[in-house]
Write a structure and sequence with these properties.
Elements (H helix, E strand, L loop, with lengths): L94 H8 L2 E11 L2 E11 L7 H32 L9 H18 L3 E8 L2 H8 L1 H19 L5 E7 L2 E7 L3 H16 L7 E7 L10 H18 L5 E2 L4 H8 L8 H5 L15
Parallel strand pairs: 6-7
Antiparallel strand pairs: 1-2, 3-5, 3-6, 4-5
Helix pairs in contact: 4-5, 5-6, 7-8
């Protein structure tokens, strides 16, 4: 009687064993035999491992999440083209179509308004439902109108820039002498019409020339900028007040409406704050107001002359407080004194004329 060799059967069609044969699917190893080393397997002849059962799903494509080989995979059929409808490059996305319908509009044209290479806004035109749809000519015409609007806006900005340069001091950002002259003429007309109080505060920054000579003009410019900020801050304490730089080291406040005492109080605050600026030496401040007894003011030149006289008096006395015209008889006499050299009135007013070295405010 032939003997049986222990291990898996190598005969195809043999009787079934109590446990399944070891293989890739069962994951069990055979029991060790008496001989050392692994027993030879009696699996079927080598060949390609059986792959997964073929699927009956559609061929893989972009929707199935599997990669396609463009050389072997069939191309998807292109959808049937929709009816031709003109769409301008600047037309809104399709999501706005529903919004148009909700608003009862059938179509729209949107043309961007481009200013300095950036989108400033847009020109929007819509038609109700049932109205003819905008075409290419309508879209082009809207683009032309948007360009015209952009040109108008750019021109307005340029004019505004010219106006700013004409009425603004470039260093401090305050108003300049031209703006003060125009505003003062309007203020005096208002004073003659309804008696509004017009006050002018003229300031001279002390020691600016010495700062420029010793520290350089860059330091002097920074001192002017800092004092301009202080002047603007004090001017904000009074309603309807213009802060300006007249030129060089001279500044002013032009106030319309507030009482003379309020203007003098703010001028005193300005002197205190200016004294804290370094490397400056404070400020000489003169005030002239129609609320004080300074006589009738017919011209802007007269008010400026009174404020200048008060400021020069403060500078000569090195006064830490403002000098007010009408509250000091010397200022009125100085302002009323006719200049000996009209062409050099400002130098003579400062007491440094070529013919007269005596200061006009030195009289008792």
């Amino acid at each position: 009687m032939p003997s049986r060799t222990p291990g898996p059967s190598s005969v195809t069609g043999a009787e079934p064993q109590p446990c399944p044969e070891p293989g890739p699917e069962s994951g069990t190893s055979p029991e060790p035999g008496p001989e050392p080393g692994p027993e030879p397997r009696t699996s079927p002849e080598p060949g390609p491992e059986p792959g997964p059962e073929p699927r009956t799903s559609p061929e893989p494509g972009p929707e199935s999440g599997q990669a396609l080989d463009p050389r072997t995979s069939p191309r998807p059929e292109a959808p049937s083209p929709a009816p031709h409808r003109y769409r301008h490059p600047s037309a809104p996305p399709d999501g706005r179509v529903d919004a148009l319908r909700r608003r009862g509009r059938g179509c729209c044209v949107v043309a961007p308004i481009v200013l300095h290479g950036r989108a400033w806004g847009e020109l929007y035109v819509a038609r109700p439902l049932g109205a003819p749809v905008f075409g290419r000519d309508d879209a082009d015409f809207a683009s032309v109108i948007a360009s015209v609007v952009a040109s108008g806006i750019a021109q307005t900005e340029r004019l505004e820039e010219v106006r700013r340069l004409a009425f603004t001091d470039p260093l401090t950002g305050l108003a300049n002498r031209r703006a003060v002259d125009m505003r003062l003429d309007e203020a005096l007309e208002r004073h003659r019409a309804d008696g509004s109080v017009v006050s002018l505060v003229v300031c001279d920054l002390n020691g600016l020339k010495q700062v420029n000579d010793t520290c350089g003009h860059a330091v002097g410019d920074r001192l002017l900028e800092r004092f301009g900020s202080v002047l603007s801050l004090c001017g904000a304490m009074l309603p309807d007040t213009l802060a300006a730089r007249l030129g060089g080291d001279e500044f002013c406040l032009l106030s319309i409406g507030p009482a003379a005492d309020d203007v003098v109080r703010v001028a005193g605050e300005l002197c205190v704050r200016a004294a804290e600026l370094e490397p400056g030496e404070g400020v000489a401040c003169g005030v002239a107001s129609t609320g004080d007894p300074i006589g009738q003011i017919r011209t802007a030149r007269r008010l400026f002359r009174l404020a200048d006289a008060a400021q020069y008096r403060a500078k000569a006395d090195r006064s830490p407080r403002p000098v007010v015209a009408g509250r000091d008889g010397t200022v009125l006499r100085l302002a009323d004194a006719p200049p000996r050299h009209p062409e050099r009135e400002r130098r003579a007013f400062r007491g440094v004329s070529d013919d007269d070295a005596q200061e006009p405010w030195s009289e008792p």
